[in-house]
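Feature request disguised as a bug: please show the residue count (590) next to DNA repair protein RecN in the output. Example input:
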Amino acid sequence: MRPRVEEVRIQGLGVIDEAVLELSPGFTVVTGETGAGKTMVVTGLGLLFGGRADPARVRPGADKALIEGTLVIEAEGRVAQQVGDVGGEVEDGQLIISRSVSAEGRSRAWLGGRAVPVGTLTYIADDLVAVHGQMDQQRLLQPGRQRAALDRYAGDELVKPLRAYEQAYKRHKQVGDLLHELTAKARERAQEADVLRFGLEEIEKAEPRQGEDVELKEEAERLSHADALRTAATTAHAALLGDPMTTAQDVQDAVSLLGHARTAVESVRDFDPALAGLGERLAEAGYLVSDVATELAAYAESVEADPARLAAVQERRATLNGLMRKYGEDVSAVLAWAQRAAERLTELDGDDDRIEELTREHGELGGRLAELAGELTAIRTAAAERFGEAVTKELTALAMPHARVSVAITAAGEFGPHGVDEVELRLASHPGAPPLPLTKGASGGELSRVMLAIEVVFAGADPVPTFVFDEVDAGVGGKAAVEIGRRLAKLARTAQVIVVTHLPQVAAFADQHLVVEKASDGRVVRSGVVALDREGRERELSRMLAGLEDSELGRAHAAELLSIAAADKGAWEKEASKAGRGSGRRAATG
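Example output, currently without the count:
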C-alpha cells in the first residue's frame, strides 16, 4: 500500500471559510477563478506538514485557522514507528495530523492525537510529501539546495562515504579549533601556570595540616586565658573538696556536706526501703563529686602561662590566615585548591605535547578528508551526468526538445561540511546556447517545466508518496501545457499528485478534479471545494478555455481534451498490462 493524503479539512484560512478535500490516490487537480482560494489549498497542505505559520493568512474575523489531514500509511511502516515514538496513534492504517494558527501568531500541532512541536511535522513530512510552490522553486535555485538535490539523486551510493566525510570533517574542525585555542592563548596559559606554581609553592612551604586551623585556635584561647582558667579550676576544686591550706572549720565543702547527708540517711535506712534507695544515690553523688574535684585539681596543675608558646601559635595562625585569604575559607579549602591547582598545572604543562599530537592528528585528518572529498566528487560527477541526461530527456517530453540541463561541479577553496564541491544546475535553452545558471538561463515558463522535469526524475530515484505543485505550469501554454499534463499523469502512476493549475490542458489529465467555488455575501468571500463529475469537468474546462462555462465551442474543446487524456492513460495502462504479462511469461519460462 502506498502512503497518501486521503482527506484535508480547512477552516478559516485566507478566503476559505470551511472546505473539505477528498483526494484521489492518483492525479488530483484544483482549479477555480482568480481569488477563489486555490493557493490556500497548497498553503493548507504546507502548514499541515510543518510549513511556516503566517497569522496574516488567518481568515478575517476568525480566531484561528485549522487544518486537519487524514493520511493512509503502512501500519507497521517507518512513519507509523515515528508517530509511535512521539506518543501518537495510528488507527487502522490512518494517521490524523492537525495544525492550528491563531490570529495572534501562535501555532500548535498534533500528530496522531498527540500535541507535538511543529518541527516534528516537518520531520514526518520528509517521508510523505514534497510541497512545491513558487517559493520552493526559488529555494531550489540556491546553490546549497542544488547540492542537496544532486546528493538525493545520487542515492545510496553516496550515503556511506558522505557520512564518513561528515564525521571526519567534524573531528577535523574540532581538532583545528582546539589547536587554534592552544596556540593563540599560549601567553594566557603561561601566566595561569605561573600563578598556580606560586600558590603551590606557598602552600607547600607552609605545610598546613587538615584541621590545623581549628586546633591552633583552641590552643590560643587556652594560652591567652591561662590564669583565669587555673583560678576557676582551683576555686571549683575548693568548693567541691575543700582547700587543704585553710584551717577554717566553718567552711564546708560539697563532699563533706554529701557525707553528712549520707550519714543521716544511713542511720535509719533499715526502717524504709525508699529512704535506703536515696542513701545509695547520695553515695553515688559523693563519689562523682570527688572524681570531678580530683580532675579539677589535675587540670589546675596542668594549666601554665607560656608566652613563648602563645607567640608561636599566633605566628602560625597568621601564616595559615594568609593562605586562607588567598585560597580558601579554611585549611580544608586551601588543601583542596592545592589539589586542583596541581591537576590544572599538569594539564597546562602537557599542552606542548598535546599541541604536537593534535597537529599530527590534524594533518592525518586533512589527508583523510581529501581522500573522502575526492570520492564524493567522483560519485557526484557521475550522478550529475546521469541527472542531466534524465532531466534533459524529460524536457524533450515537455515541449523543450532542444534544451539541455547540465550540472556543473566546481571545487571550493576549502573543505566544507559536505565536501569541496559547489553544485550548480545550468540550462542551455537551445543548441549553441551556452549553459547558464537556471536564474539566468530560464524564463518563468521554462523554469516551471525544468522543476517538473527534476521532480519526475526524483520520483524515479527517490520516490516520495505525495507531490503537491502550486501552478507548476505558470507561464506555459499550448502544446507545452498538454505535455506537462501528460508528465504529471505519468508521475501519478507511481505517486499521489496534487496540482493547483489554471491550465485546462493540465486539468484534463487528472483522475479527480476539484474546483474551489466562491460566493459573495456583500462583506466576505466564502469558498468551498467541490468534486466534479464528467459534465462538471467539461463546464470547468470550458470556463478555463474560453471564460464561458456554457460555450458550445468551449465545451467541445473541453470534451476533446478529456478524450485525448483518457486515450493516453488508456494506452499507458495497456502498455503496463502487456509488460506485466510479458514479465510473467518470462518468469514462468525461466
